[in-house]
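Priority: medium. Attachment 1 of 2:
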């Protein structure tokens, strides 16, 4: 009876809810990407973070503000033809522009997926953009900061786990006395 009670307490301690905090994992300058050559992939900032730091794009939140997780703005710098200035263009973290098609869900656009630089839609100049391509941004002007969520146990979870371990210790102590 006591063993099953202790096992139940341990199970509760391990499975109780936990919150998640954003943790800074690194940053990159958009210009750190490959030089445009018509064969580089068009990608959102979240996709670029997954390429650089590993994992999948859904693991990441991107910010243009800095390393402080409390200031994440979920925005990103992108680079591309006619983006407006040498300081890049700030867009939503999941923004993609490919062959004149704009997507905001990290999904493949109707374009060809490659950084074609300029798609010929003169005079609108709707060229492709990417969060990891060396093109118009000045070095250091287009830095994106990547964060991932890490689970943090709730205080109640830790208390239940501690009670379970204390119960196991007292049970073991009785058994050997």
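Attachment 2 of 2:
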């Amino acid at each position: 009876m006591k063993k099953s009670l202790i096992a139940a307490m341990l199970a509760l301690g391990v499975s109780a809810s936990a919150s998640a905090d954003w943790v800074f994992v690194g940053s990159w300058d958009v210009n750190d990407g490959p030089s445009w050559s018509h064969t580089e992939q068009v990608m959102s900032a979240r996709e670029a973070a997954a390429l650089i730091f590993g994992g999948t794009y859904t693991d990441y939140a991107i910010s243009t503000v800095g390393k402080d997780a409390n200031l994440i703005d979920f925005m990103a710098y992108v680079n591309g033809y006619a983006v407006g200035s040498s300081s890049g263009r700030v867009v939503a973290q999941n923004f993609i522009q490919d062959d004149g098609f704009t997507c905001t869900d990290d999904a493949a656009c109707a374009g060809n997926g490659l950084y074609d630089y300029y798609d010929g839609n003169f005079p609108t100049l709707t060229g492709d953009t990417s969060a990891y391509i060396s093109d118009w941004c000045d070095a250091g002007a287009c830095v994106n900061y990547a964060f991932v969520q890490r689970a943090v146990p709730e205080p109640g979870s830790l208390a239940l786990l501690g009670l379970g371990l204390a119960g196991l210790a007292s049970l073991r102590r009785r058994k050997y006395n």
